[in-house]
Design a protein that fits this description.
By secondary structure, the protein is α/β, with parallel strands linked by helices. Helix content is 36%, strand content 27%.
């Protein structure tokens, strides 16, 4: 039986994993290969899953915890994607606050399912917006040392480390980031790329198509620090129905998602709460738009534009920030009321989950070099 090529793209929240996954999927599809994608989140209702499906990809979703704690669900989801047409390539995107993937996902997959999957290198995208501050130990990175610990562990375990979003960086900034990585992790293979415009992707594809490098050990992870770092983040997933006001007035779908992210960003700034990633998808009659923010120092971006004017829409909201989740939900509720008044619509929350991630408890942990 031909083995499925398994690729995993890690990286912190807002590193650009979904954009990179979509670009890789298009590359393999152009080669005539069948591609399956698996997304992952701590809760149901993931913008990334809807985004990728809207682009025409076959996508499975593992919700409720990271792949490490939902390993059996990852395997079941991968198998479901192959029920009708076995993919040649399976690309998986883990939760952005997760680490220890080499020992809890890749090694168990290799040891338990190596006859079904050909496992590629673990590629990790470096998020520039927080990376420079965390790598240099600069004050004001926006997260506690325990959350920064997760960021650094993700880089440490990478087989290939990619400085992403270089379309937004000057060459000197890319060089500086590469130098910081090399000074901290001198043995890492470091590439630079832009998932958005494709710069550097030929080198990235060549790297991930090589056999996974032989390693004698996987990084040690302090699960107490890891758990406390994850628990610093408030997590919110929700869906909101925007309905016509009285009288019904058409509004720009692009504008409403942009404005809600802008309002949430301003509210978080007022609480001195650092956003890890805010992402909102708006959909109406087949038109869809996505706005996102990846740090307090960044600008809100319209990452997918619809140019549609509508009088009703469904909004999917994913927010992760260093704030109490109850406060995050309160801020969203207040900003939704203000948004409805601004656009002359009614906004009704259909579903909402807000919480702090629980302690990670991997299904398997098979570190190399253990006795």
């Amino acid at each position: 039986m031909k083995r499925v090529r398994f690729l995993m793209l890690g990286g912190f929240l807002g590193a650009g994993k979904t954009t990179a996954m979509a670009r890789l999927a298009r590359h393999y599809a152009r080669q005539g290969l069948k591609v399956g994608l698996v997304t992952n989140d701590q809760a149901m209702g993931l913008v990334d899953t809807q985004n990728l499906r809207a682009q025409g990809f076959e996508v499975g979703e593992v919700a409720g915890a990271c792949f490490c704690c939902k390993f059996d669900d990852l395997i079941a989801t991968a198998q479901q994607l192959g029920e009708h047409q076995q993919p040649d390539v399976l690309i998986a995107e883990p939760v952005g606050s997760c680490t220890d993937l080499a020992a809890t996902v890749i090694e168990p997959l290799r040891q338990l399912y190596g006859d079904a999957y050909e496992i590629g290198p673990l590629a990790v995208l470096l998020k520039p917006e927080h990376g420079r501050k965390i790598l240099s130990g600069e004050a004001g990175a926006g997260f506690s040392p325990k959350a920064a610990y997760i960021f650094l562990k993700q880089l440490e375990e990478a087989d290939i480390l990619i400085i992403n979003k270089i379309d937004k960086l000057a060459p000197a900034e890319v060089q500086s980031l590469a130098g910081l990585v090399k000074s901290r992790f001198p043995d890492q293979e470091v590439l630079s790329a832009s998932a958005r415009d494709g710069t550097g992707f030929e080198e990235l594809i060549a790297a991930i198509e090589r056999p996974r490098p032989a390693r004698t050990s996987t990084p040690e992870v302090d699960y107490d620090v890891y758990a406390e770092g994850e628990a610093e983040l408030g997590w919110l997933n929700g869906s909101v129905r925007v309905q016509p006001g009285d009288p019904p007035i058409e509004f720009s779908l692009d504008s409403i998602v942009m404005r809600l992210v802008e309002r949430l960003a301003r509210a978080l700034k007022g609480q001195a709460a650092e956003p890890a990633h805010l992402k909102i998808l708006g959909e109406s009659d087949g038109a869809w738009a996505i706005a996102n923010l990846v740090s307090s120092a960044s600008q809100v971006e319209l990452s997918a534009a619809s140019a549609a004017h509508v009088n009703a829409a469904e909004l999917t909201i994913n927010a992760r920030a260093a704030i109490d989740p109850d406060e995050l939900a309160r801020l969203l509720d207040a900003e939704l009321r203000e948004l409805a008044a601004e656009f002359g619509v009614r906004a009704h929350v259909q579903r909402m989950q807000h919480f702090r991630p629980g302690r990670p408890v991997p299904t398997h942990r098979m570190p190399l070099g253990s006795t």
